[in-house]
Design brief:
InterPro entries: DUF3027
Radius of gyration: 47 Å
Number of helices: 6
Strand order of the largest sheet: 3-4-5-6
Pfam families: DUF3027 (PF11228)
Shape: rod-shaped
Number of strands: 6
Number of domains: 2
Protein name: DUF3027 domain-containing protein
Helix content: 40-55%
Distance between the termini: 121 Å
Length: 201
C-alpha cells in the first residue's frame, strides 16, 4: 500500500493541496458495500489494537475496483496525528467483505523523525579536521610508547649484565682456559705427541 498523501487540484488552477492520510487514493467512488463495512473494519482492528487506542471513523476511500480503505483516529500515546487504516475488498458479485491489510500511517499533523542525513554530510569541516588531528596524535602516542618499551628492555638487559660479580668473571675465564687446553691436548694426541721429550727425539 502506498505511503504518500494524494493531492487534489482546487478550482481556479490553484496548487494541489495534500489530503490528510498517507495512502494514495485512486479516483472514483468507493464501493458501496465496502464503504459501509465500518464495523467489519473496526472489528479487524480490535484484534490487533487495544480499544482505547482506536478513535472515531474518519472516512472510507477508494483505492480501486472493489477495494476500499477505512481510516480511524489513532489515540495511542506518542502517535499524535496518526491514523489507523484497514483495507477491505470483495470479489465480483460477492457480499463477503475480506480484510486485506491494516496498520497505522502518519498524516500532515503527525510528529515524525527528521530525515536521515549521511555522516559525511552532517559532520562540519572543523569536526573532520579535529578527527584527523586526534588520529595523528594517537599514532604519535603509540610510537612513543613503543620507544619507551624498547628503552626499558635495554636497561633491564644492562642491569642483568652488571649483576655478574668479579668471581663469576674469573670462573668464566678459567673455564675458557681449560677448554682451550683440552683442545690442544686432543690435537697433540692425534699427532702422536705425548710428551715434549718425544717431540725432541
Amino acid at each position: 500500500m502506498a505511503g504518500q498523501a494524494s493531492s487534489s487540484t482546487t478550482a481556479g488552477g490553484a496548487e494541489p493541496r495534500p489530503r490528510a492520510g498517507v495512502p494514495v487514493w485512486r479516483v472514483g467512488k468507493p464501493d458501496a458495500l465496502l464503504a459501509g463495512a465500518v464495523g467489519a473494519a473496526r472489528a479487524a482492528l480490535l484484534e490487533a489494537v487495544d480499544a482505547e487506542h482506536i478513535g472515531r471513523h474518519l472516512g472510507a476511500k477508494s483505492e480501486g475496483e472493489r477495494l476500499v480503505t477505512h481510516l480511524f483516529e489513532c489515540l495511542r500515546p506518542g502517535y499524535r496525528g496518526w491514523q489507523w487504516y484497514v483495507t477491505v475488498a470483495r470479489v465480483s458479485r460477492s457480499k463477503i467483505v475480506t480484510v486485506s491489510e491494516l496498520g497505522v500511517l502518519p498524516s500532515e499533523d503527525s510528529v515524525l523523525a527528521p530525515e536521515w542525513v549521511p555522516w559525511s554530510e552532517r559532520v562540519r569541516p572543523e569536526e573532520r579536521e579535529q578527527a584527523i588531528l586526534d588520529a595523528a596524535a594517537e599514532g604519535v602516542e603509540a610510537a612513543d610508547e613503543a620507544d619507551e618499551y624498547d628503552d626499558e628492555a635495554a636497561d633491564e638487559s644492562a642491569d642483568d649484565s652488571s649483576d655478574e660479580g668479579p668471581d663469576e668473571a674469573e670462573e668464566a675465564e678459567a673455564e675458557e682456559a681449560e677448554a682451550e687446553e683440552a683442545i690442544e691436548a686432543a690435537d697433540a694426541e692425534a699427532a702422536g705427541i705425548t710428551d715434549i721429550d718425544d717431540e725432541i727425539d
